[in-house]
Amino acid sequence: MHESSLADAADRLWEELPGHRVEILNGSIVVTPPPDGPHQETCYDVAFEFKEAGAREAGLRAVPGIGLWLPTGRDDYAIPDVSVVTYDYKDALVEKNCYAPHVFRLVLEVTSSNWSNDTVIKLKTYAEAGVPVYVIVDREHDQILVHTDPEGGHYGAVTPYKRGTTVLMPPIVGVGLELSADRLLDGDD
After folding, report:
1. What DSSP line would sit under the chain, residue for residue?
2. What is residue 7's predicted lDDT score, i.e. its pLDDT?
3. Per-residue pLDDT for 189 more than 80?
4. What per-residue confidence (pLDDT) applies to 69?
5. Mean pLDDT throughout 121-136?
6. What pLDDT score was predicted for residue 4?
């Protein structure tokens, strides 16, 4: 078997399934169907709120759907729903439109039909990549989880938020921001 067959298979799936997200996590291809409207509203709103809170002035950008090259395998990469990256992230291009982990300050995932990928597999791989903050908008369990302090493939701290509360972005992100848990979960005002 050709040594790049996993990456080639992922590329073929990406071409054959327009609108689907194709990732390689821990050496396995993961295909996610197109997201629903509320999912996309949340992603747009989060990116917008980071920009409004001064991300550019802080040397950061909030970007939806860019690739994160993962240290978990030769071809592993993820495509977080929203990423907060350093302003010079384009200089850290690895390949396949994926960027080195060191430019990522925060990744946010909004769960869909494959919520276990976001809450289990990506939790570990983002920690292994050293992403300082991982936010999970867990629509399956109606909560927001903010994971911080990655070390040894695990996040050392998690702060849960329920409906009716305000989600605080940790200072390590570099931008002070408060978001409504309800708005994150529902994708609207």
Report:
1. --TTHHHHHHHHHHHHSTT-EEEEETTEEEEEPPPPHHHHHHHHHHHHHHHHTTTTTTTEEEEET-EEE-TTSTT-EE--SEEEEETTGGGGEEETTEE-GGGEEEEEEE--TTHHIIIIIHHHHHHHHT-SEEEEEETTTTEEEEEEEEETTEEEEEEEE-TTSEEEPPGGGSS--EEEHHHHHHS--
2. 85
3. no
4. 96
5. 96
6. 57
